[in-house]
Amino acid sequence: MKNEQELKQVVKARYAKIAEQGKTENAASCCGATTPSNKVYNIMMDDYADTKGYIEDADLGLGCGLPTQFAQIKKGDTVIDLGSGAGNDCFVARYETGIEGKVLGIDFTPIMIEKARVNAEKLGYNNVEFREGDIDAMPVSNATADVIVSNCVLNLVPNKQKVIGEIYRVLKPGGHFSISDIVLIGDLPKALKDDAEMYAGCVAGAIQKTEYLQLIANQGFQHIKIQKEKPIVIPDDILGKYLSQEEVKTFNQKAIGIFSITVYAEKPGTKLEKLKVTLSEISTTCAPETGCC
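RE: above sequence
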């Protein structure tokens, strides 16, 4: 397996290619941009068709859940979407926040950012912004977001603990996240685990379900719960790119669990605490002796 920076470059190159494909092409492959299965599988994605705020042009078919459906977004909220792609979940979140709120999408693939901005401009959404950057070093100030969502992205980041730390940093006290991601129960065959292409394909970068939840708890999040869980089945012809026929048979017999889960958790505190911090900063920077008040 490549090192952290090399993996990031593999993922970035792959998702740049995905941005140039249509949803149908992406849905017919393992998380996009691979040789299509000889059966047309929507291997990971959920159907957004009946979701309010859904914009088909922004849906590249790359998700593994519907995190915005469970995110409890309220009018006026500030929402951040990690790995925002062409803007799909941002536009759904924008429907929930209304014009009173703000939605910020972060993605490290320039062509995805460009595509998302074009979509936002066509829609006339002035309260939806897209920033280029890594989600393990977000270009966002502390305590900015009421809600964070993400759809099948954390599994693509080598240092997951760092991303979870960043989520904690940019959430307001009392804020929460709802994230859909891929996790494992049992070990993947080495040929899958060590392949950079399979890593970028949303599988090899996944970690054990118990480890994933423990990382969230270790960061200090509370009220952690799984909002939805579904199994992911990789077609034999895709497995056959990496495993022999006998190995594919063994893999299927072991019934290794590959799951999409949507996880919810809250940052301790209340939004009133954030207000107190803000007022304290104002009083410090605008004290009477400074002459600015």
